[in-house]
Amino acid sequence: MRPTDVIDVAAAAAPCGLRPANAPEPAPAAAATEGWVHSTETCGAVDGPGIRYVLFLSGCPLRCAYCHNPDTWHRHEGTLTSVAELLTDIGRYRGFIQAHGGVTLSGGEPLAQPRFVKALLRGCKAMGLHTALDTSGYLGALVDDEMMADLDLVLLDIKAFSEKRYRRLTGAELEPTLEFARRLAAIGKPIVLRYVLVPGWTDHEAEIRALAAFAAGLGNVQRVDVLPFHQMGEHKWRERDLNYRLAGVAPPSDEAAERTRSLFRAAGLQVS
Fold first, then answer.
1. Cβ-contact 124, 97 below 8 angstroms
2. Which of 61, 111, 230, 261 would disulfide-bridge 139, Cβ 3.0–4.6 Å?
3. Which H or E run contains 214?
């Protein structure tokens, strides 16, 4: 969940700055549905396989201590946008992303707007596009069978692996995320597991080993991405007069990141 600066959806550039001349029309899926959009990225390379159109939605129930985009917490801070408008814009890139990537719905927490997400996924699948959902899984119970059928991949961010540490880090419960992971495993829906490594917070080896064992036991985790913590969003907390609990925490060393990756590899998981 990595929103960039806000980009006007209607004026977004084509992949890497080239807009196709003859843009295909998308399927008219739930044209009346509207939702709150923070920003878009038309050439995303880290939010799923290939080059992707990434849509960052506003709204999130978690309050992660390391969140670098607190400007996505509240829906009203986004731009109210129709599904039809977004599908039309996605359709302009259809030929490129169909061959080289797909569409990823991120946030914030996209499942904070489940009807909007469902309509967007349906429209994307009608265009024959690969779809991915970047989520904490905390609201996974809102994913119904129809939405699940339109998902090709889930980028699942499991932020900690003890109830106490998860609640300290996010203000929420861990179990809904684990239950969503088990549900995905039961139907064989592919997962890319994401784990943010924060020194002093999520670098406890026993917990990482336990998470690795859990992930390996699911049987549907394609890869684990270990993401080193950074301070790029600290200024947003200051601008909003929010209490930033990670002020002064340094990013993990390369050695610490590699040690964490080795713990996941030891459980038989592919790691990037």
1. no
2. 111
3. helix 205-218
